[in-house]
Design goal:
By secondary structure, this protein is α/β, with parallel strands linked by helices. It has two domains: about 210 residues, UDP-N-acetylmuramoyl-L-alanine:D-glutamate ligase, CATH 3.40.1190.20; about 150 residues, Rossmann fold (3-Layer(aba) Sandwich). Helices cover about 35% and strands about 25% of the residues. It has 15 helices and 17 strands.
C-alpha cells in the first residue's frame, strides 16, 4: 500500500457545506501496509525482501521508488487493480479525514503460481518470514499455508499479523500477533482490556491455533505473550501517544528482527513493546530506527549521536508536530562552563537543539595537528550527557554549510562577536541569533594552562 499525507491549515468553514477548508501546503508519501513492516525492518538495520501485488499506475511507481530509496528489495507483481492508497488530510496535530482508494478482486491462478514461485525462492535464503495480512485477498488460505509449509521445510520461523477471523489459514505459524480487537473478533465478542480476560480467552483458543506463541498487543496496556504454559505481561512503554498509525507493523517488524537475531520470545516481545512505545509518539506512518530502540533499551543511554539520514527523518516528524528546531555547531573539544551556558541559552530559543559537531579531521584542519584532544566519539558522548542537547550529528567539512542546507533549522545560533551576515549557512535558517560567549572560558586557554602545569 501507499500512504499519502496532505498537510495544511484550516482557517475557514466551506460555504458549500459545514466542513473545514484545508489550504494544503505540503504532501508526503511513505510505504504503507506490508511496506511499512518492511520499512521498519530495514530501519532496524536488517535486510528485507518484500513480495506483494501492485497496480499498473502512477502510485505504483511512487511506491517502488520509496522502497528502493529505503534499501528494500522487492518483487511486486502487477494485477488489474489499482495500487491501494490511503490519503490522510492533516491540519496542525489533527487528522481530519482519511480517504481510501482501492478495489477488491480475487487473484488469478496465474498470479498465485507466480507468487508461490517467488515465495519459495526467497524463503530458502531468508532468516525469518513475515505474513502481513491486511485482508486484501493476497493472504488467502492457499497462499498462507503454502508459505508456512515452505518455511517449515526450510526450518524458518513465521510471524503472522492477522486480519481475518479465519485463523486456520495461519496454522503452523510460529507467532501470531493480534491486537485486542482482532482477538475479540476471532473469539466472537468484544473483550475487556484486562489481564484475566486476555488469559482466559488465550487458554481457550490456543489449543486450536497450531502455533507456538500468541502475542496480543493491547494499546495502553502494553503486550501479552502466551506460550501455551505461561503468560508474560509487558506494560506499555509509551511516554506520549501522538499517532497509533502503523504501531502493529512496528511490533511485527521488531519481533521478526529480534527472533531472527537469536533472541527468545520474551526478549523479542520486550524489544517490540519498547519499539511500539516509541512509534506511537511519532506523527503519521513512521518507522522506529535502530538508534532510537538502542537508546530506549539502554535507558536514555550515553549517546544522542545520529547520522544525517536519520536526523532528516527525525526532523520531518518534529516539524509535523510544529516543533521549533534550533541548530548550532562547533568543535566542543574540551567541554567547559562557557559551552554549557551557551548551549543552555540556545535551547531556550526553541524546542529541539541539534549540535553539528566537527569531525576529527575537520578539527585538525581548523585547529592544527595537535587537535582534537578528544575524539569525535568522546566529544559526542559528553555532549549527549547534557540534558539541553537533543541530537548530535557529525560533519566532515570545515564549515556546516552543506549540513545546514539539509537541516534548514528554524533558528541558527552562533556564539561570540559575529555579525549576522558573517554566519555561514544563515540563508538556510528562518532566523539567526548571536549569543555572547562567557568571558574567561575557552578550550585554547584550558590547553595552555594544562601545558603550564606540566
Amino acid at each position: 500500500m501507499l500512504d499519502k499525507y496532505l498537510y495544511g491549515q484550516v482557517e475557514r468553514i466551506s460555504p458549500e457545506a459545514p466542513v473545514p477548508v484545508v489550504l494544503v501546503s505540503k504532501e508526503s508519501y511513505t510505504p504503507g501496509g506490508a511496506g511499512n513492516v518492511a520499512n521498519n525492518i530495514v530501519s532496524l538495520k536488517a535486510n528485507c525482501r518484500l513480495i506483494g501485488l501492485i497496480g499498473n499506475d502512477e502510485n505504483a511507481g511512487v511506491l517502488k521508488k520509496l522502497l528502493s530509496s529505503n534499501g528494500i528489495e522487492y518483487n511486486l507483481l502487477e494485477w488489474d487493480m489499482p495500487t491501494i492508497t490511503k490519503t490522510r488530510v492533516v491540519s496542525g496535530n489533527q487528522q481530519l479525514i482519511r480517504l481510501d482508494f482501492e478495489k477488491s478482486s480475487e487473484i488469478s491462478e496465474n498470479l498465485k503460481e507466480k507468487l508461490k514461485e517467488q515465495i519459495a525462492k526467497w524463503i530458502e535464503t531468508s532468516s525469518i518470514v513475515v505474513i502481513s495480512d491486511y485482508g486484501k485477498n493476497i493472504c488467502s488460505y492457499e497462499i498462507c499455508q503454502f508459505t508456512i509449509k515452505q518455511a517449515s521445510k526450510s526450518k524458518k520461523s513465521v510471524i503472522v499479523d492477522p486480519k481475518k477471523t479465519d485463523w486456520q489459514r495461519y496454522r503452523g505459524a510460529t507467532v501470531i500477533t493480534p491486537n485486542l480487537k482482532e482477538l475479540g473478533d476471532f473469539y466472537g465478542r468484544r473483550l475487556e482490556n484486562d489481564d484475566k480476560v486476555i488469559e482466559s480467552v488465550a487458554k481457550k483458543i490456543y489449543p486450536h491455533l497450531g502455533i507456538s506463541y500468541l502475542v496480543v498487543t493491547r494499546s495502553e496496556k502494553g503486550m501479552t505473550v502466551y506460550d501455551g504454559k505461561e503468560f508474560y505481561h509487558f506494560p506499555t512503554e509509551a511516554k506520549e501517544v501522538y499517532d497509533v498509525s502503523g504501531a502493529g507493523d512496528t511490533v511485527v517488524a521488531t519481533l521478526s528482527v529480534a527472533l531472527a537475531s537469536g533472541f527468545d520470545i520474551k526478549e523479542a516481545a520486550l524489544l517490540a513493546n519498547k519499539a511500539a512505545g516509541i512509534v506511537v509518539g511519532k506523527a503519521g506512518t513512521s518507522p522506529v530506527y535502530y538508534h532510537e530502540l538502542l537508546k530506549e533499551v539502554e535507558n536514555e543511554s550515553f549517546t544522542k549521536l545520529v547520522s544525517l539520514d536519520e536526523l532528516l527523518v527525525i526532523l520531518d516528524d518534529l516539524r509535523k508536530k510544529n516543533k521549533k528546531i534550533v541548530f548550532t555547531n562547533g568543535c566542543f573539544d574540551i567541554i567547559h562552563r562557557g559551552h554549557v551556558t551557551y548551549l543552555r541559552e540556545a535551547k531556550k530559543l526553541g524546542d529541539v537543539l541539534i549540535i553539528g559537531l566537527n569531525s576529527d579531521e575537520s578539527v585538525k584542519r581548523l585547529k592544527g595537528n595537535a587537535r582534537p584532544i578528544n575524539s569525535v566519539e568522546d566529544r559526542a558522548n559528553v555532549l549527549s550527557a547534557l540534558e539541553v542537547v537533543d541530537y548530535v550529528v557529525v560533519f566532515e567539512e570545515d564549515t556546516p554549510y552543506e549540513l545546514l542546507s539539509k537541516v534548514r533549522p528554524d533558528i541558527l545560533v552562533k556564539g561570540g562577536d559575529y555579525k549576522e551576515e558573517e554566519v555561514v549557512g544563515r540563508e538556510f535558517a528562518h532566523q539567526t541569533v548571536i549569543l555572547p560567549f562567557v568571558a574567561g572560558y575557552s578550550t585554547t586557554n584550558i590547553i595552555k594552562k594544562m601545558g603550564g602545569l606540566s
